[in-house]
Amino acid sequence: MLGLPHMRAGAEKADTSPVVSEPPSSSNFAMDTREGRVGNAFACERCRKHKVRCVPSDTASLCQRCQKARVECIEHVARRRPAKSRSDGHRSDSHTPNRTREFDKKLDKLSAIVASMGPSASPSNLPSMATLPSQRSDGSQHTPTPAPAAPQLAPAPAVLKNPILPAPDVNSGDSLAFWDSIDTMACVGRLDPVIRTIGLVHMQMLLETYRVMVDSFPFVPLPKDCSCQDLIHQRPILMLAVLTVSSHDSARLQTTLSRELRKVVMIRVMNGDKSLDLLQGLLVFIAWHHRYMEVQSISISMLLQICISIAHDMGLEKEANAIRSPLHKDNPREREIKRTYLGCCFLVSNIGLMNQAKLQPSSFSSTLRAQASEIAVVWEHKSDAVLPILVDICQYMEDVNETLRDQPEHALVARSQVKRLSDKWESIQAASKLQAKDFKSLQWLLLAARIRLYRTASAVELVDRDTPWVNGFRLSLRVNCLRSIETFLDNSTQMSSGQYEATSIVDWLNLASTMTNLSQLALQMLPLPGWDPNELQIVNTFEYFRDQLCSRMPHPREASDVDNDVFERFRRTTAVIMTALRDPLGRGSPNAGTFELATGSGRTVSLLQDLPSLKPNGVGNGTERLPSLRQINPSFDISKSDFHWRFLMGMN
């Protein structure tokens, strides 16, 4: 070791022979400068702490005090002011920061390069870079730098002609300013660096993706002339929600955005914020919540309760039901408020019907139906045409729920009510044929309403079931329920992967509930004359539609997204249900050659773990039944009313 600078001072004084000094290298410049100084400026850390003179010892790299104390002698690196640079023979100002001088040098070099370059003969047709997340869409064109010859690419559409490096303008920092504002609102930790990589071009792409997805939830549409800059400045919470729901290409990014949105929403709610921006952002976040649902996060029921509270405090119900003059009816702000309130009622009604223990379903009044009709007449957005039909379907399902309650009923009364509700469903279907062709979610909701009718009617307890014709009526209800399920699933198999990407939580819950109902028809229906699940081949029907749906649903783009992907959870859960259907009594091995059962988490569980221990004489061994699937995995109980929620979570 060379030792500390103050320890080499004695050696330098002893050696008085002239030495030809060589110019120091840039790496050793600071060290050589310290070696030339004499004094206490470079005393070791311990001597500086005790404010005493640091005297070098005979041992290299140790002073006398550290040697006596038998401790490590730590060299102190002195802070020196860097030498002032000179450019063009003039001294720069001593107060000018180093970063400014370096920036000036870079500008001088760039200016020299640009001055030495000649103008290009003609601007080349460069491909559009709209897919780059860090670039910003800009309409201005610039002359590109001459590049080596490359294969010709197909020219991009005229609408998407963007330069590779657009010139910066006043809006170039909008994305960073937006993320800084979100970071300030979150107030918990720092924003994930992955989120900050989303630039304006990426934001605009996600905005266009949301415009396609909004057909599945047409209550928060965006104006045609609305850009990401407009949402950043006017509706930051809605903008963050739009980015969250439309970033389904990356499960990691979507999960990260959803967590940040939850933090921002909770802080805004605790601060007493009651704004349309917050309510719309929450509705959009809930509408596709199944894509980023987490067990530890706040539940959908709690989020809906927050929406109801905000809407009530803002008086949206009074504003939506208020009688206004024809001049006020043309106000876009009024229509936006009405759509938002309708969307809140829509989510509460549909999700509440499937989770009545935690959320009371909302009711649609005739006034809300009239408001939806007024919005459809103006037809400001394409999706406005389906709002009255969605309200009709919600009112229909409320009618089914109130008419066919879980209480004893006479068979004649039940049959007449089922006939009335069936005719009402036929009229709604006939009135919505034109809109159902363009909106797949409308077809799903309409077919799910028919399944609810026959499923609820078949569960009604009839007081006069001993009447001869009652068994035939009950059998017809089960058969109609099975046929309605098959129609729903057949309609689902005609969807493309892109349509599955845009599916809302209401549609996804209906799909999960339909698959659950089909499995229940095979496993848990009470015996009935004429009803034979094996003859009806319900298990084969389930397997066929499962294979069709799994083949059409998108696959995760990255291996790390498998656990969080909603479609992979669907594949895992239906595979476990398929195992239960193949071996409902748990008497044999579902793997047909082993005594192991594949669970949803990828692990295998032995079917023999619950069996009693072996007896020496062998008496009694082999007479006990193998444990059922429900005993192995208690959460796998399709008879529970909340099983479709476990279905969404992959039974985690």
Automatic annotation (TrEMBL):
Highest taxon of the lineage: Eukaryota
Region (Disordered): 1-32, 79-103, 117-153
Organism: Plenodomus tracheiphilus IPT5
One Pfam family from the record: Zn_clus
GO cellular component, one term: nucleus
Cross-referenced PROSITE patterns: ZN2_CY6_FUNGAL_1, ZN2_CY6_FUNGAL_2
Gene3D superfamilies according to UniProt: Zn(2)-C6 fungal-type DNA-binding domain
Localization of this protein: Nucleus
Protein name: Zn(2)-C6 fungal-type domain-containing protein
Biased composition (Polar residues): 119-143
Principal location listed in the UniProt entry: nucleus
